[in-house]
Amino acid sequence: MTTQKVAIVTGAASGIGLRLATTLVNKNWRVALLDINQEAGSALATTLGPSTLFIPTDVSSYASQSAAFAQAFSHFGRIDALCANAGIVDRWSLYDLAGTAEGKTVADVPDEPDLAATEVDFKGVVYGVRLAVHFMRFNPEEGVSGGKKIVVTSSIAGAVPHPALPEYSAAKAGVVGLVRAIAPVLREKEGIAVSCVCPGLAATAVLPGFVVEAVGDALLTKVDDVVKAYLAYLEVEGEEKAGEVVEVVGGSVDVVPPPRVSTQLGKEMMVAGMGPIFGALHGGESKVDLSGFF
Ligand SMILES: NC(=O)c1ccc[n+]([C@@H]2O[C@H](COP(=O)([O-])OP(=O)(O)OC[C@H]3O[C@@H](n4cnc5c(N)ncnc54)[C@H](O)[C@@H]3O)[C@@H](O)[C@H]2O)c1
């Protein structure tokens, strides 16, 4: 029987995921490294050694991510934490500022956009949550303590809208909303604490060098500070911080206050609708205490 906790880290081959995976290994966790980048992922597993397993994965594909979870579970025998961290930014311009109506007709409809950022940053996290809930149900009871955790990497651009990265910003806001929506239910029903880290701009591969230069050292967030925010969720006992969303900017970690319906009527409406909607869709009662939630 192992006393080591097991984490799945997506996007583990670079940047925040790489530092997080390395830190967890140094703290005696065993880590499944999931990434689409096979070369960097294999190299990292070689560096970190036998307490890791690299599994080439495209998180935006349910088949790929579910096969990776199955492999991780079969290799390590349990999954204590999912760090849903893989992410990419917009691959197209929603504004198309260079485009004009000149020389075109109304029938020249723009090409279908490449929504890869939504696929990875939003769909990939939804898939990960679904899989984590399933596999964590099969964790052996004995072994390790600390509780089951899901931590999602959103972004400062998910905590507040970012006009320069509209698709990314919306997808990252989507996962903030997802975390807030599911945390009370997964805590109550599954004993899983779900939380969310929203890093400020950090000098990793996702950020082009010219942006890093323009922002400058004084305003950049250190990857180590993002990892510390992650550890605060992974290392806390139980579900105390379930539903929490934090911004990590510079060395500061601040809770992002949850949005609330602005009128009393609206709050009562939301509470009144919750039971019937939940029952119809999920076939049971949420048993969630909604006082103050809306
Ligand atoms: N660096 C920043 O400024 C910043 C700020 C806020 C949020 N974030 C978020 O932090 C997370 C980590 O990014 P990072 O800064 O370490 O960037 P990074 O580019 O260094 O790392 C991202 C990793 O995700 C992997 N990846 C991309 N698509 C994938 C897919 N389909 N399946 C599996 N893996 C995939 C990449 O191969 C890479 O290893 C991302 O979600 C990113 O949006 C980064």
Description:
Belongs to the short-chain dehydrogenases/reductases (SDR) family. Helix 1 crosses helix 8 (223-234) and helix 3 packs parallel to helix 4. The protein folds into two domains: 6-259, NAD(P)-binding Rossmann-like Domain (Rossmann fold); 262-294, no CATH class. Helix 2 (38-48) links the parallel strand 2 and strand 3 (52-56). The protein has 294 residues and is an alpha/beta fold. Helix content is 43%, strand content 15%. The structure holds nicotinamide-adenine-dinucleotide.
In short:
The protein contains 9 helices and 8 strands.
In total, how many domains does the architecture comprise? Answer: 2
- Summarize the main sheet: 8 strands, mixed
Strand content: 5-15%
Shape: globular
CATH homologous superfamily caption of the largest domain: NAD(P)-binding Rossmann-like Domain
Derived structural class: alpha/beta
CATH class of the largest domain: Alpha Beta
CATH architecture of the largest domain: 3-Layer(aba) Sandwich
Distance between the termini: 43 Å
Mean pLDDT: 95
Query: What is the total tally of β strands?
Result: 8
CATH topology of the largest domain: Rossmann fold
Q: Give the topology string: H per helix, E per strand.
A: EHEHEHEHEHHEHHEEH
Number of helices: 9
Helix coverage percent: 40-55%
Keywords: NADP, Oxidoreductase
Pfam families: adh_short
GO molecular function: oxidoreductase activity
Protein name: NAD(P)-binding protein
Which structural traits does this protein have?
294 residues, alpha/beta, Rossmann fold, 8-stranded mixed β-sheet, 8 strands, 15% strand, binds nicotinamide-adenine-dinucleotide
